[in-house]
Design goal:
This protein is of the alpha+beta class and about 150 residues long. The protein has a five-stranded antiparallel sheet with strand order 1-2-3-5-4. Helix 2 runs antiparallel to helix 3. It is globular. The structure holds adenosine-5'-triphosphate and magnesium ion.
Length: about 150
């Protein structure tokens, strides 16, 4: 069954209100979706962390805490690779290179550490950030999952 899914590709998509209580829902949903690739605990933890970072960014930066905002996630599995797209229609990012710098944060008063994008770049195999002022932000990331079966057999 899962082999068929992998050959044909598989996807899911999700839209939810930009409320912090939805962050854990988002990361658990992605973890459940990727479970068909039989990921290791470490891979699951990495994926949950990047989802959490990206969704938190949309909520606190993209929408400045306005719960009327909508965050969407789509995930696609092709072979052993998961592609995640996380997007908002919020304020957008003025300077992408600056935003990606480790330790850069525009909200030091909220005790952010400025490490969200650095974590996403490090935990995933591919990371692509697209944003326009007033037009929202879209992050596309890919990770190859090394199945537990491959590790232990
Ligand atoms: N979805 C977004 N919409 C608008 N601005 C964003 C968005 N995501 C990130 N940014 C901008 O990029 C900066 C860097 O993001 P990053 O996640 O690396 O750090 P942070 O969120 O400030 O801190 P941390 O993630 O460590 O709590 C943010 O401070 C913010 O200015
Ligand atoms: Mg962040």
């Amino acid at each position: 069954m899962s082999a068929d899914n992998q050959q044909a590709g598989n996807f899911m998509s999700l839209k939810f209100a930009a409320k912090s209580e939805n962050e854990s829902f988002a990361r658990v949903t992605v973890a459940a979706f990727v479970s068909q690739l039989d990921p290791t605990m470490e891979e699951i933890t990495d994926l949950k962390t990047v989802v959490s970072e990206a969704v938190t960014n949309s909520i606190i930066h993209g929408y400045d805490g306005n719960p009327e905002g909508v965050v969407s996630i789509s995930a696609e599995i092709e072979g052993d690779t998961i592609t995640l797209v996380i997007e908002d229609q919020g304020r957008g990012i003025e300077d992408l290179e600056l935003a990606k710098q480790p330790l850069y944060t525009s909200k030091p008063e909220l005790e952010r550490s400025g490490m969200g994008f650095t974590i996403m770049e490090n935990f995933m195999d591919e990371f692509d950030l697209h944003s326009e002022m007033g037009g929202g932000t879209r992050i596309r990331m890919k990770k190859r999952i090394v199945s537990k079966k491959a590790l232990y057999n």
